[in-house]
Amino acid sequence: MLRLVAPGPSTRYYRIGVPEDARSVFSPSSPCAFEPMTAPALTHPLTPREAECLRLLARGESSKQIAHTLGLSSRSVDAYLGRARKKLGARNSTHAAVIASKAGLLIEP
Fold first, then answer.
1. Cα dist from 60 to 5, 63, 107, whole Å
2. Domain range spanning residue 95?
3. What is the pLDDT of residues 37-61, one digit of tens each?
């Protein structure tokens, strides 16, 4: 339950909650509950270099930082991320990192 306070001379509290009937929609037994993500069916598995670039991207590093860490050019890093993005069917590199992370493909060495 969340309480919001309206500033002013007469302070009022507002209670915001989820109605009981709406909670059943999000229960684990509900047919529309979210399923845990499984590893995508990859026709070509990620190379170790692609997985490493995605792992560093998932940690918040930029392409330039990844390039410096791995001793590569930023164009090489962008190429690795592009190939990984294509293999995972992601819209962008960040989306690819999220997909790979949720699928357990970015395990620390």
1. 35, 10, 16
2. 48-102
3. 455 566 678 999 999 999 999 999 9
